[in-house]
Amino acid sequence: MADLLRLLLRVAEKAANVARVCRQEAPLFQLLVQEKTGDDKNKKFVQDFKTLADVVIQEVIRHDVGAQFPEMAGFIHGEESNKFENGLGESVTVTVCSTEEETAALLSTVLDGDHTAASLLARAIHQDPATIDTSTDGLTVPLSPSELGIWIDPIDATSQYIEGREEVLEEGHLSPSGLHCALVLIGVYLRSTGEPVMGVINQPFNSKDPAGGGWRGKHFWGVSCGSINVCSVSRPKDGAGRGLSVVLSSSEKQVVKEALTSLCGPDKLVYASGAGYKILCVIQGLADAYVLSEGSTFKWDSCAPHALLRALGGGVVDLSKTLQSNVGPQDHKMELTYHQPYTECKGADRWANHGGLVAYRDCSQLCSIIGALKGKL
Ligand code: 2IP
Ligand code: CA
Questions:
Q1: Cβ atoms within 10 A of the Cβ of 183, count?
Q2: CA 156 to centroid of ligand 1, rounded, Å
Q3: DSSP state of 342
Q4: If we measure between CA atoms, which residue out of 171, 256, 166 comes closest to residue 204?
Q5: Cα-based angle 161, 319, 330 (whole degrees, multiple of 5)
Q6: Residues with C-beta atoms within 5 A of ion ligand 2
Q7: Atom of ligand 1 nearest to the CA of 272
Q8: Could you give the CA distance from residue 154 to residue 180 in angstroms, rounded to a whole number?
Q9: For residue range 166-193, what is the model confidence (pLDDT) as tens digits?
């Protein structure tokens, strides 16, 4: 299934391109950042353009994967539904058509006849992405498409994507908010066990071309299946004596912040936006762990980066399950899985990571964190 990895890298690059085009092309950008004001008849649509951008990206991925691997077509899930209502109250299902013109015509019905915006979006959808260096030569992945399912988060950290602040990234440093927190996440899991086995992360706004050529993206990938553990990011060096650093959501509970301050020291707690970006910080060694005590992330947020962490020898555990259990946190049963919904919940909540999570690279660090939080939540 190295073919699947190469396809996901290509399609994630196409998705990143759509995300960039929506910010770069004035007619699309205006829709993206437009405030809902007045009683415009397009009000419903206008406030939802960001959702349309998400839906379009998700459909591009679903379309391209389904076309090459038809066995996977019924098992490609995402954050968004592709049903849309336009300003006239008509319901439209957004799909990728076989030609750019047909896609433009369909998008135009959702965009209430804005042909310029529809054509720009359709062009980005049908354009082949630039070839990316994947360095996956020689990789064999012993999996077949009929065993696999996919979770897509078309744009994680949407609020940062819309706000669009441009931060200058310093090598080796985590930057808490800004466009670079927005990520395209595609995770692959085993249908039988729910284990994440492959992940692709594309960061559409990684660096700005100094010559004025716009934003350049960056991609990361990992495969973890049986004895095969390969990741495009090399395992960060263990900084013995450096102290444990933890990244948190700024809305994290005080009790968690206090317990972790006692464990790590106050200057080792850092805050960042985006669930996917926080796990990416752990993957890159910009933080040692990400702790979240709320059930505010979903399978599409964690599946892809979880696969990369597994490939590096780490993982993502269910925090509340781990705190309640008598076996050690390193027990593999504590890891998040991706195949079964919470049947007692409705809508998106069926796929929430209800127990919170801890993303880690190193098991002994996970144990210290669990020890510090035990009895506190
Ligand atoms: C969100 C996004 C948020 C995150 C939340 C995710 O996904 O990543 O930033 O909250 O958990 O579900 P926080 O930044 O506080 O960790 P989306 O942007 O796709 O809705
Ligand atoms: Ca998300």
A1: 31
A2: 6
A3: -
A4: 166
A5: 115
A6: 153, 156, 301
A7: 14
A8: 15
A9: 988 788 888 899 999 999 999 999 999 9
User: What's the chain's length in residues?
Assistant: 377
- Residue pointed to by tokens 């990789």: 139
**Alpha-carbon Rg of the chain, whole angstroms?**
21
Residue that the structure tokens 């310093």 belong to: 170
Instruction: State whether the beta carbon of 275 lies less than 6 angstroms from ligand 1.
Output: yes
Residue 199 has phi, psi (to 5 degrees) of: -145, 140
Residues marked as catalytic: 54, 79, 153, 155-156, 158, 301
CB neighbour burial string for 145-175, b if at least 16 within 10 angstroms, e if fewer: bebbbbbbbbbbbbebbbeeeeeeeeeeebb
Q: What angle do CA 56, 60, 66 make, to 5 degrees?
A: 140
Burial class (CB in 10 A: 0-12, 13-18, 19+), 61: buried
* pLDDT tens digits, 216-237: 999 999 999 999 999 999 988 8
Distance (Å, rounded) from C-alpha 30 to C-alpha 144? 43
pTM of the model: 0.94
Q: Whose CA is nearest to atom 11 of ligand 1?
A: 297
Nearest in space to 5 (alpha carbons), one of 279, 311, 283: 311
